[in-house]
Prior knowledge:
Layout: H1 10-16, H2 68-80, E1 85-89, H3 92-103, E2 109-113, H4 118-127, E3 134-138, H5 143-148, E4 154-160, H6 172-181, E5 185-189, H7 194-197, E6 207-211, E7 225-229, H8 231-245, H9 251-262, H10 264-283, E8 288-292, H11 302-308, E9 315-320, H12 323-333, E10 338-339, E11 349-354, H13 355-363, H14 367-377, E12 380-385, H15 391-403
Helix pairs in contact: 1-2, 2-9, 3-4, 3-8, 12-15
The structure holds pyridoxal-5'-phosphate.
Amino acid sequence: MPGATMGLSRETLALNGGLVIDPSTKAIAPNVSMSVNNVLTPGDGAFSADGVDDLTALPFLYARWTNPTVRQLEQRLAALEATDDAVATATGVAAIGATFLTFLKKGDHLIVSDVCYAGANELARRILPDYGIEVTPVNMSRTEEVAAAFQPNTRLVHCESPCNPILRLTDLAAIAGVARRHGALMSVDSTLATPVATQPLTLGADLVIHSLTKFINGHGDTLGGVVCGRKELVEKIRSRAGVYLGASMPAMNAWLILRGIDTLFPRMRAISDSATKIATFLQGHPAVAAVAYPGLPSHPQHNLAKCQMDLFGGVLTFQVKDPATMARKLAAHLKVAHYAFSLGHQRSIVVLLDTQEMMKSTYGLTGEQLADYRRFAGDGVFRLSVGLEATDDLIADLDQAINA
Length: 404
Ligand SMILES: Cc1ncc(COP(=O)(O)O)c(C=O)c1O
């Protein structure tokens, strides 16, 4: 199998990892295998001599577990994250939910980043307690506070780096060390970093999660999620999530995402380069009060970014004096970028995330945690997800819309 050879660079694995050339047609593009189930034949584990069937020995049984196209995607993502297994899910949220519901049960304790993707934060804080799971939100950039939050029943620490939407970083190796000392697992949502920038498993995390909907597919035309990690952990997720939660990835989505990953490295390099130039431009713009981007020396954790990110990614934020008026101006006047939610597409997207609204709808932070949020986000940030348009066109577009 191409990509199985040890020692290939990740850039090559993005093209060849998990790729299976169909033996009958020798087609160079992956097949889209639409079949839901597979024929059972004597000798394949379904019919054992002692009458005990071992269905887990079959490579493919039923598409809710996995299917041949989805499996190619899972193996490619495992290769990119330098591990041996991955389970794909219908969405990024399904990957997060499957992780929580596999490794946490009644009486267990979760430490979750006080700021992370809204869906993950709300699931942790609002839903898990209904099932008897204790949840403590912590600012993951303060390693000592994470260490202090551990309880004897802490089973999982979940973080993001950079975190959506304020782009604060977590020292992944430090938190992994703390989690390991307490015998807890650590999951990292690495959607904003992508495997091109950061490989959390090599820094000591146990599980890495991506919303494939974002940069990894990169074209804004399919949902998807994945959890990558050691086989024994991934198998646990697959056997709970695949069998009982049912949020499996459809084959066509896997095919689209495989095609997206083919160009992940050159896309992320171009996007990151462009984001650096746009962040620098915005920092010097008289109407812009603050810019956050891990690649800017002004980012409070720029040194950490240089240590754990190979490039600085495609998302930056900026603040202005009167965000509500600016939001209307951007929505009305942008001609190249779009004013819209989500991120990680081939086209640039910008949206206002108002701090008060975010507190009401999602985070509910108070005291020091709110002050920490405001240090990165003030009254609100415009989150700009940079696409593949010419950088000069994007800068000119932002400039004319900001000045309109
Ligand atoms: C960091 C992060 N994780 C997870 C998700 C959820 O992904 P999906 O929309 O694919 O469920 C998002 C979506 O915005 C995200 O930004």
